[in-house]
Amino acid sequence: xxxxxxxxxxxxxxxxxxxxxxxxxxxxxxxxxxxxxxxxxxxxxxxxxxxxxxxxxxxxxxxxxxxxxxxxxxxxxxxxxxxxxxxxxxxxxxxxxxxxxxxxxxxxxxxxxxxxxxxxxxxxxxxxxxxxxxxxxxxxxxxxxxxxxxxxxxxxxxxxxxxxxxxxxxxxxxxxxxxxxxxxxxxxxxxxxxxxxxxxxxxxxxxxxxxxxxxxxxxxxxxxxxxxxxxxxxxxxxxxxxxxxxxxxxxxxxxxxxxxxxxxxxxxxxxxxxxxxxxxxxxxxxxxxxxxxxxxxxxxxxxxxxxxxxxxxxxxxxxxxxxxxxxxxxxxxxxxxxxxxxxxxxxxxxxxxxxxxxxxxxxxxxxxxxxxxxxxxxxxxxxxxxxxxxxxxxxxxxxxxxxxxxxxxxxxxxxxxxxxxxxxxxxxxxxxxxxxxxxxxxxxxxxxxxxxxxxxxxxxxxxxxxxxxxxxxxxxxxxxxxxxxxxxxxxxxxxxxxxxxxxxxxxxxxxxxxxxxxxxxxxxxxxxxxxxxxxxxxxxxxxxxxxxxxxxxxxxxxxxxxxxxxxxxxx
Length: 571
Fold this sequence. Notes:
Layout: H1 2-30, H2 38-56, H3 63-79, H4 81-101, H5 103-124, H6 131-147, H7 153-156, H8 165-172, H9 186-198, H10 212-227, H11 236-256, H12 263-278, H13 290-298, H14 302-327, H15 348-362, H16 375-384, H17 388-413, H18 423-437, H19 443-472, H20 475-505, E1 523-528, E2 531-536, E3 556-558, E4 567-569
Antiparallel strand pairs: 1-2, 3-4
């Protein structure tokens, strides 16, 4: 646990300073001043992942990458020192004013965050590592740590071509160069960041009315409790879902604050582009870019359009380049874009088979021949295979999409009436849910759409009703709002109690100094062109230590004299 805390201090300082430098520079170009400190950390996390991917194109992501990152952060602190000092003093003044009005509330906030920090550090130091972590996550991260990016690596094992910016971020902060283990604390740090955002309204409980974002926050807390014992794993699913929660909650916060400037929405759109590099299942999240893009084009703000477009390209380009190097395809395993003729390219047949396997697996099948089944044949079986709670959430999301459709039709027929701002995020999450449902609906791929479709749509419906009741003086609406708050509170108390019992029952007095290491499995060696490789004695998992490894004997040949030169598929 101590190692997690030290790692997080390093992550917190570097991501904050990196994000502060980026957003301060953009503020100078656009004239908008970022007010919320949490934005700097999230911007820094995405920026660090992009930086790690760029660095991996030229060298292993190890000590040199860490030193250069520290130099960049120190440069950011120096260049922005006047504003940084001013902002810090303002925060201290705000805290001092809060202490004057309520000493108890001021220290409650500080103590609460420290307890949250320690709780999530405890969870990140131990727990259950995802099955796929021993299958390919750990190996992917080790390849980045030792070689950066290797041509045709996906030929060794196709899952090593499942490029994710989250693996580069994990490698950047793994600290393996210190001579100990490779730490995997980044997912837990992101979970802590999202938890702090979700629990933000606790400061004002009982002193304000419900907002749509509160419903999304409740679902965020629910998801955090679900993955608490798994966030030790550097799985890309967790990074994608957590960042999607953060993005949508912040978008709703901006709408509720009646933010008129385009800048904060545009930066969230850049984050949506970054999400695409974390997990391809987040593809439709980029629909959020439509709102600021249309506003900028309508107002002919060409300079800002160029800035945001350039940021989006810079965010995605390293990911696309790594895709081509790892697999020979622009977006593996999608074979619809075939632009490159390189000797390390994964054969089209293997890539297409892999894509179909992913899709049928999400539909509840392991037989790829089921790929062509129409939706009315595979969906009933898929639904029956869900757990009881999962069925309820999926049905609630389907109902929510129907409710959104009715709300959209009502707006469309009421000519001359401007659409509510909240209809836009409702539309995006509804489309994301439908895309997930009819493509590869594995719950862990798209639970964020299942949860947030219900939360966003019904959050808007309920709060609009409550607002109307307050305007017209109807008491029933106010009573229903209080009842809704009570139900939310009881739900959270129940989940917190169950969560507490689970922690107590699973408590083991270990991992207080160092984080639990990767799971490792028994392997045996085999040779390819005189180089030693490893495969599992049984099953398909190897872990981190046996390197390089693959689930079975790989049909590859070396492109050069060592593995750093890459791999070609052996016919």
